[in-house]
Amino acid sequence: MAKIVNIxxxxxxCSVSISIDGKIVxxxxxxxxxxxxxxxxxxxxxxxxKEASFSFSDVNAIAVSKGPGSYTGLxxxxxxxxxxxxxxxxxxxxxxxxxxxxxQIQVEPDEVIIPVLDARRMEVYSCVFDGFHNEIRExxxxxxxxxxxxxxxxxxxxxxxxxxxxxxxxxxSCSNFIYHKEAFPSAKEMVSLAYKKFKDxxxxxxxxxxxxxxxxFILQTKKA
Length: 224
Fold this sequence. Notes:
The chain is an alpha/beta fold. Helix content is 25%, strand content 29%. The longest helix is centred in the middle third of the chain and has 18 residues.
């Protein structure tokens, strides 16, 4: 039996789920623009475990959303996950943030899903999945213009999902593009992906694992 704590902090949503053999048994999350992760994450983990009637000694693995996403959010989530793995001697599972997002919707085989996370200005982090949730284009940081995702417009429908969907909708004009602007990464969709990796013993090296930032962190400072 696989009892897994799933942690998602790649965006404004601080999210924790507890699962048994790929099934959710409890969820605790809060999506606020102020990024409550540092204050809420450990509390959410404890509350989700309590709701599931688990203690830390019952847990078999820790799963964490690995990015791309917010530099600070990812650092908080990964640091918490690694700390739990070290202290409890548990394996660490990493789940790609955009793949987890793609699993929020079910589409037809002749459609595609493009999860997009908002980055600076007109930029997004994106990846492309087919109707069976298989990755068909790697994750990129890209600037959205009128030609973005043009190579996929031949599909019946193109589902653009996530916080970057709004800037895409304002720029792209293809009639078969559908925008899911309210979607955000959640630990709920991590569950099935984490369980598959657990069964395959697909674990990370806890000592050396780092979030997938995709781009170098740039410190924003005010001009004098």
